[in-house]
């Protein structure tokens, strides 16, 4: 079982916001609210749901996302490499859990993050 991050090329799935109470359909973790969206969506469509693609800042938060996405081992989150890794919500890129050999910049075109709870590496 390998729960490290792997990379691919486009965004779908997660959203998050930061109110004190979460809207219906969202789940709270720490001071943020998360929603897992199973419908494949573009990055713009995902953001139109009321938040941003998820940023991950701790091992505990990663485990929370794993429980939220149960049954969907490959999940897009808001990491982006525009020359330097950052989160699309503007928060600091202060936690990393890369799969072995990732990120693989020699291939090119790998500029997004996909959480991989299923144990396979996707390029």
From TrEMBL:
InterPro entries: C-type_lectin-like, C-type_lectin-like/link_sf, C-type_lectin/snaclec_domain, CTDL_fold. SMART domains: CLECT. Pfam families: Lectin_C. It comes from the Eukaryota. Residues 29-118 form the C-type lectin domain. This is C-type lectin domain-containing protein. The lineage of its organism: Eukaryota, Metazoa, Chordata, Craniata, Vertebrata.
């Amino acid at each position: 079982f390998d729960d490290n991050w792997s990379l691919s090329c486009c965004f779908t799935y997660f959203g998050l916001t930061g109110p004190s109470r979460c809207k219906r359909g969202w789940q709270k973790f720490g001071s943020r609210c998360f929603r897992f969206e199973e419908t494949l969506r573009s990055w713009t469509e995902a953001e139109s749901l009321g938040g941003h693609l998820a940023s991950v800042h701790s091992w505990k938060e990663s485990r929370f996302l794993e429980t939220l996405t149960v049954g969907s081992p490959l999940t897009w989150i808001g990491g982006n490499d525009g020359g330097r890794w950052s989160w699309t919500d503007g928060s600091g890129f202060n936690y990393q859990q890369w799969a072995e050999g990732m990120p693989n910049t020699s291939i090119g075109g790998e500029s997004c993050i996909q959480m991989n709870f299923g144990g396979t590496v996707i390029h």
